[in-house]
Amino acid sequence: MRRIAKGDTDAFEQLYRRTSPWLAMRLRLRCSDDGLVAETLQDTYLTVWRAAGSFVDFSSRASGDTPGGATAGWLWTIASRRLVDALRRQGRRRETPAEVMPTISVPAAEDDALAGTVGDELGVALAELAPELRAVLRAMVLDGFTVRETSVLLGVPEGTVKSRARRARTLMREALS
């Protein structure tokens, strides 16, 4: 990231080659539109190129180094926000009057996958968790993020992530006992 911040295109290309397959896969889990995923990837890496200096400044103050996990968390934060922005833009272009639009409730792909693979009892327990607790579990358990990466991804302090994870585990234990 330091080299990218200094304008090193080789370092940027190396970052792109190493992270774009992973990032594209994560985005596809949340959006099935390949065009939107490609647009989001492009926007993400353009942002990385432009803002690498701010990441280096932040991570240097925070830890004295720029660990790979922090970089992955930062990339995912940018990509997920860019995807939300793209979906909002797309929604505005296709505005349908509210009285014509059907009301459909579709669970997230991860929730479907969890409910299908872990059984009804666990699926129900997960569905009953508050959204912020589910988000922490999804990031830490399904995505394999550390507390620090989850903190960056969700935009909350590390202590909050730890508290939510502990609370979610407690509620899951109670629901399954």
Automatic annotation (TrEMBL):
Keyword Transcription regulation: yes
Keywords in alphabetical order: Sigma factor, Transcription, Transcription regulation
Domain RNA polymerase sigma factor 70 region 4 type: 121-170
A GO biological-process term: DNA-templated transcription initiation
Keyword Transcription included in the entry's annotation: yes
One of the record's GO molecular function terms: DNA binding
Cited SUPFAM superfamilies: Sigma2 domain of RNA polymerase sigma factors, Sigma3 and sigma4 domains of RNA polymerase sigma factors
Entries under Gene3D superfamilies matching the protein: 1.10.1740.10, Winged helix-like DNA-binding domain superfamily/Winged helix DNA-binding domain (1.10.10.10)
Similarity section: Belongs to the sigma-70 factor family. ECF subfamily.
Protein name: Sigma-70 family RNA polymerase
Source organism of the structure: Actinoplanes friuliensis DSM 7358
